[in-house]
Amino acid sequence: xxxxxxxxxxxxxxxxxxxxxxxxxxxxxxxxxxxxxxxxxxxxxxxxxxxxxxxxxxxxxxxxxxxxxxxxxxxxxxxxxxxxxxxxxxxxxxxxxxxxxxxxxxxxxxxxxxxxxxxxxxxxxxxxxxxxxxxxxxxxxxx
Length: 143
Prior knowledge:
This protein has seven helices and two strands, in the order H-H-H-H-E-E-H-H-H.
């Protein structure tokens, strides 16, 4: 049991040094940050855009249209552990975050299903992770 707490303390310190802004984000835990750091690896420059990171995580939308129906679905490929971590963040934000709840209410009034709303939220989370881990500070526009 003590070894586990020692490992957790090391992981918290390591994640806090590598991605402090992610550690402060709502719903993103130490394990999520660690999973994203593992995914990005030692060379974040290889991930050239938010779309590339989304595809790597399996969060990019894929057209699933037929006839007059125009829909999107989630990619079933990519890193499943990273996708699961992003999904957990999306669910926590849907449950606790006021901005996310307002967004979900707005999208529901537009006729989106809960699954489509979660897909959009996951994509937003990937954008946030990309800005924190992959984009150089001079390339990221101020928000």
